[in-house]
Design brief:
about 80 residues; mainly alpha; about 55% helix
């Protein structure tokens, strides 16, 4: 996850990038790779430097091509 704001120092509403990312992450966790890809690409169209959107987009594309056998919504990282 990434730091979005300091509590009490910003708008209560998430911006468009965060909204698209949240939609993409929810679809990703549900195993809906096509929807995850659409939402995460939309987030990157708004902010090409959004690292979390880029990471999950790459994983969604990979999983669409080669779905995990047992999907529980969790990505295990093997490197820092």
């Amino acid at each position: 996850m990434e730091l979005v704001e300091i509590v009490g120092c910003g708008d209560a509403e998430p911006n468009a990038v965060h909204s698209r990312f949240a939609e993409g992450l929810a679809a990703f966790r549900a195993g809906d790779w096509a929807e995850a890809i659409r939402s995460l690409q939309a987030a990157l169209e708004l902010d090409a430097d959004d690292g979390p959107s880029r990471f999950y987009l790459q994983k969604a594309v990979e999983f669409r091509r080669n779905p995990p056998e047992r999907w529980n919504g969790v990505v295990l990282l093997d490197a820092k």
